[in-house]
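Researcher: Please predict.
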Amino acid sequence: MNTERTWTLAVLLVATMVACSSDESGSDGMVDLGGGNDPGLDTGAGDDDGVTGDGDPGDGAAGASADPGATADDPTIAIDDMMDADGVGEGDDADAVDGVVDGTDCDADPHHPACLETHVLGRCDIDSGFPGDEACLLPPPPGQGIQVHIGPDDYNDPDQINKFLLAMEQEVTQCYSSTTTNEEDVYYQSYVLSGRAGTHHIINTGYLTPHAAGADESWGGCRFDSENVSPRIPGAAKAYHARLPVAPENAEIGTRVQAHTAITSDMHYFNFTDGPILREYWINLYTVPEDQVKQTSNRIRGYGGLGFNITPGTDNVYSYSCPIDADGRILALLGHTHAHAVRFTAWLNRAAMGDRLKVFETFDYLEPQVYAYNSVETNPEFSDTAPGAYTGMLEISAGDTLDWECHIINDSDATLRFTNEVHTGEMCNIWGESIGARIDCNRI
């Protein structure tokens, strides 16, 4: 299986990344569908000091309007651009003839990992008039999972459209509050996430208590309640993250979603196109019986570059390290940077073995990769120009460290700091998922 189709882990989930900021530059992007007074783009609480999860290192940085000259490396990649000509995910050789894909009867099991992109993705009855209708996901059948959807409920309602509208030349990071629809607790092991063009990151934090009165289904400040965080809800590092099979050694690992979980979605979107877009995404969580789940995973989080002050013309490598406190396994890793990072590399520094194992590398912030380490996935081999990762189960021991670095070239006129702006801010963050050990740190 080609892991460049990215498995986004339940890592970006609870996590929180950076500033909850908003930008009102450019046109307001209002759309009149013939219904009353348009409220315009809801910019929530603006530059908010609240944070999701456990911290907001970039708080206070105002959102910057996107660079109109950046269209040559336009990050608003459509779902179609991530598909082969036959509509199947990048690198797949799937044959969808007569409803059969890779030997799987997709008519009988359309939500099977091999079938999602031919039988679920883009099969909704949506005609919004905006780019990305093909990103929609049909929900799982009853009893097989739940769906989280952030976006308009009615594409003919101008209030609903304007609530999620992002005008051209805007870049916004805001938090949206919602609640899951499951009536009872469920446990999931796998998922698929799909967002419209313009998705840079989605960080979902679940909470054990409901949102404040009036906050549900609305934009606003990022909720800060780190002692009240529930198990994870998946997030995104780009517009589409495929559902992958569960490796045999992970068959008893799962994540609980309590009934009616309150979610805060930290959503970073940018629009470098010549028209308005919608901020919208869908997640399908595929559930398993409760008695099958014997172990839960931990989030890996390493913030690198909190003290960035990278002046124009700087060409430098920034290195970081995070301690590992117990034996276990790393299940997946993701590197997160912005436009001026030309390489992201991670190693496992194994104390007992006295070596440093290269485990992850990427070169393009527009194509972030999430690589899984198990007995099923075959990751791409390392090269000087293409993303790659170690293949196999990645055992860790107390005393090891997870090391990572970013090569950043500031060829802009701006001083780069740790903020959410893609072209005028920079980060060197590592995310992931582990069992046994907790790997969590902030680095200057």
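Model: The chain is about 0% helix and 30% strand.
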